[in-house]
Amino acid sequence: MTNKIKKARTKRYSAIIEKVFLDHWKEGIQEFYFEREEINGAAKTLNIALPKNIGDVIYSLRYRLETPQVIRDATPEGLQWEILGAGRSKYKFVLNKKFEIRPNVNLITIKIPDATPEIITSNTQGDEQALLAKVRYNRLIDLFLGITAYSLQNHLRTTVSGVGQLEIDEVYIGLDKSGRQYVIPVQAKGGTDHLGMAQSKQDLAFCRNKFPNLICRTVSVQFLDASTVVMFEITEDSNGDLKILDEKHYQLVKAKEITLEDLRLYQQMR
């Protein structure tokens, strides 16, 4: 896709979302609901061609596009508007505390031997698929969380009460030395897409709804560069606000590239 086409799409999507937002927003309001059909209506009113996948408008605002200026102007300092699922073909704009999942560039990078089969590396289609494959074959979920984890399903589509239909990039089931069992939904973003609050919120809702007897540990992953994977564990505090519980940067390298100095450094870490 050329830059010209991307810019045109960004302009169209932003205009549609601005229209839906302004149709509901009033000074002092903190949340409001809207339906999927309103995206169609806004596009018709503005004489804008919609994509075949209407959900791409919502996805783009969550993970790709900068928040439109109209919405930023209606956002108090320290807060942000998020679009969350609210049922089948229903959504809601919610004003939350500002929360961004961004890599800490000052964090140490840990080298680990790359166990990704070359045939997988040479045949992955797209950044997100490549990222999930590297996480799986290098057992990064196990390393990051300190448990034994098994991939249950990728690109899981399901419906959760109060949220509606959702898709989770990959779901793992885990076990620790004391017999505790875990469910680990993984959010993965490649390319220029960024990790978002909405995905973490829906992952937590998925755990509560589908696996109420397992311990939920939500993980978000992205590439920092072609060989470095950034991993976050996201949780909710007692007020229901999202927090980053842990962050690690793993660089996948050939075993011979891990030096004695690297090993001595890692011995001092916990």
Topology, element by element:
Layout: H1 3-24, E1 31-35, H2 36-46, H3 55-63, H4 69-73, E2 79-87, E3 90-97, E4 109-113, H5 118-121, H6 127-137, H7 140-145, E5 148-160, E6 164-175, E7 181-189, H8 197-210, E8 215-216, E9 218-225, E10 228-236, E11 242-253, H9 260-267
Parallel strand pairs: 4-11, 7-8, 7-9
Antiparallel strand pairs: 1-3, 2-3, 5-6, 6-7, 9-10, 10-11
What this model shows, in words?
Strands 4, 5, 6, 7, 8, 9, 10 and 11 form an eight-stranded mixed β-sheet that branches. Helix 1 crosses helix 2 and helix 1 crosses helix 3. The chain has 270 residues and is of the alpha/beta class. The termini are far apart. Strand 5 and strand 6 form a beta hairpin.
N-to-C SSE series? HEHHHEEEHHHEEEHEEEEH
Number of helices: 9
Radius of gyration: 20 Å
Task: Specify the biggest β-sheet.
Answer: 8 strands, mixed
Strand content: 25-35%
